Amino acid sequence: MLSYAFYCDRDVATMYLSVVGSLAMSSLVASFASAFQDHPHIRTGVFLALAGFGFVPIGHLMRHHGLFHDHVLLTLHGLAGTAVVNLVGVALYVTQFPERSFPGRFDLVGSSHQWWHVCVFTAALVYYAYAMQHYEWRCLTPCL
C-alpha cells in the first residue's frame, strides 16, 4: 500500500516504510525475546503500535487528497476489508469460540486458533486483491 499510495512522493514512502520496518522488527523481537514473554502487556503494545501505525499514512492521504478522492476511497476500501477479516479472526481467538461453547468438540479441527489462521490467510488474499487494484489504479493515474 505504501509504495503505491506514495508513489509520486518517494521520500514520504521511504519514511513510512522505514517506520513500518522498524515496528515490524520490534514485533519480531517481541515474539521471540524471553524478556517480552514475561511482560505480555509490552509485547501487546508493540503489536498494537504496528497495527495502529497503519492509520497514519491513511490520515496523510486523506489530508492531502480529501476523503472522497478515488485514491483515498480505494485505499480505505481495501484496508477496511482486510481489517474486518482480521478482526473476526482476533475476536474468535480472544473469545475462544467455538471451543469455549462446545468443550471437546473442536480439540482437533475447528478451534479458534485454527479459525484465526484461516482469517489471517483470507485477509492476505483480500489485501492481495486490493494491492492489484491499487497497482492498476497507479498505472492508469500519472503523477501530477
Question: Could you name the key traits of this structure?
Answer:
144 residues; mainly alpha; 7 helices
Rounded to an integer in angstroms, the radius of gyration calculated over CA atoms is 18 Å
Q: Mean of the pLDDT scores? A: 91
Number of strands: 0
The main sheet comes to: none
> What's the helix-strand series?
HHHHHHH
Summarize the amount of helix as a percent range: over 70%
Amount of beta strand: under 5%
Report the span from N to C terminus.
19 Å
Low-confidence stretches: none
**Overall geometric form:** globular
Helix count, per DSSP?
7
> Total domains, how many?
2
Q: SS-based structural class?
A: mainly alpha
Notes on the structure:
- The chain has helices at residues 2-5, 10-32, 34-37, 40-53, 55-65, 70-95, 112-140.
- By secondary structure, it is an all-alpha fold.
- It has two domains: 1-65; 66-144.
- Helix 5 packs antiparallel against helix 6 (70-95) and helix 6 packs antiparallel against helix 7 (112-140).
- The longest helix is centred in the C-terminal third of the chain and has 29 residues, at 112-140.
- The mean pLDDT is 91.
